[in-house]
Amino acid sequence: MPDLTAAELSTIREDLHRIPELALHETRTHEYLRKLIGSWQVPFMEVTGIPAVPTAILVHLAGTNPQRTIGYRTDIDALPVTEETGLDFASTIPGQMHACGHDVHMTVALGVLRHFTLNQPRDNMVFFFQPAEENDFGGKRAYDAGAFAGKWRPDEFYGLHDNPDLPAGQIATRLGTLFAGTTEIHLTFTGVSGHAAFPHQANDALVAAAAFVMQVQTVVSRNVDPVRGGVVTIGDLHAGTIGNVIAGSAHLDGTIRAFRQVDIEMMQKRVRAIADGVGATYGVQVDLNLIQGGYMPVENDPQLTADLIAFMRQDATIDFADIAPAMTGEDFGFLLQKFPGTMVWLGVGDPGHPLHSSKMSPDEAALLPGVSGFVKFLTHRMAE
Ligand SMILES: CC(=O)N[C@@H](CCC[C@H](N)C(=O)O)C(=O)O
């Protein structure tokens, strides 16, 4: 029986694209994956779940002469974005979309898994279909639940993320840190609401929030080493109900990002100090929740990544490129702190529409090269 064809990969990707589900709620996606994998009926394959992370799936392939266990991880969740691609296989779930390409990630993982179910690997393999990459850190949850114990423990771990800016099918990575570590900011200022005409009788939480948004811009400009870089973005601010009522509360969500954990922790302290300072200055109550969870910097293992780069460079059938680090986050960073491994970008050729755009539409021409690049590299790892 042959590997999955381009047409079969495309059908799978489109099926998955129709049913985007948010972190830890990926029940239909879980069912689809389990049904498909279960239909392959492989004697050396075992499929299991993780009770603490019910939408996760783990697949174990027993090798013919195992020297190690090779892990491959894909994320499976989607985003609360209303799709505007106009595709005929667009999301059927209102307000939710695979706007980060996890449908592509899952499809490539299934293609790689299918290959090794048809060609029993020499080494053992573990495939991890991980919920909650966008938030709620499904990788850390699975690890903390003991999912990678015993035969499920990978000696090396690989994964990919799609990249609309790169040509479809190109694989890119680098030695060292590929993605930033992140910390979610969730902040509420509580003051006293009142009539717009009598500000002296109220305490305006919206004005406090505005001051916070401006002051927090100084964290990157004044506290972060410019050579190392960092990001503080407040992406969401809600305050008040109508123009002639002073807002009694304001809620803000945002993200802190940097390539080094020491910088992330420094930025967390500065954001906390500024929030407390605004609270004291404006007399508003401050409730600040900073969550890093599993979003550690994505640090590629030096030896494994050097091997991957050397292998991909010498294979003329693989379009490989070196690339600079990016401020995207990925909770695969947590798993790469526990197990050595490498994350790569897979180009999906849609440069006008960045990750998280409601119009992002990956080119399916990326699917076969993604599968074959990893099949070749993992087969090479097994010959080491
Ligand atoms: C690849 C990607 O887009 N990942 C997300 C990860 C989000 C981490 C966390 N929820 C945060 O917002 O800090 C990203 O936004 O980079």
Write the layout of secondary structure elements.
Elements (H helix, E strand, L loop, with lengths): L5 H13 L8 H12 L6 E4 L8 E5 L7 E7 L26 H17 L5 E7 L7 H7 L11 E8 L7 E3 L3 E3 L1 E10 L3 E2 L9 H11 L1 H7 L7 E9 L5 E2 L2 E10 L2 H22 L2 E7 L6 E2 L2 H13 L5 E3 L9 H7 L2 E7 L19 H17 L1
Parallel strand pairs: 3-4, 3-5, 5-16, 6-15
Antiparallel strand pairs: 1-2, 2-4, 6-16, 7-14, 8-12, 8-13, 9-11, 10-12
Helix pairs in contact: 1-3, 3-10, 5-7
The structure holds the ligand CC(=O)N[C@@H](CCC[C@H](N)C(=O)O)C(=O)O.
The ligand CC(=O)N[C@@H](CCC[C@H](N)C(=O)O)C(=O)O binds next to strand 8.
Question: What does the model show?
Answer:
This protein has 384 residues and is an alpha/beta fold. The protein folds into two domains: 260 residues, Aminopeptidase (3-Layer(aba) Sandwich), CATH 3.40.630; 111 residues, Alpha-Beta Plaits. It is built from ten helices and 16 strands. Strand 1 and strand 2 form a beta hairpin. Helix 3 crosses helix 10. It binds ligand L5K734KM. The site of ligand L5K734KM has 12 residues, from strand 8. Pathway: Amino-acid biosynthesis; L-lysine biosynthesis via DAP pathway; LL-2,6-diaminopimelate from (S)-tetrahydrodipicolinate (acetylase route): step 3/3. It is an enzyme of class 3 (hydrolase).
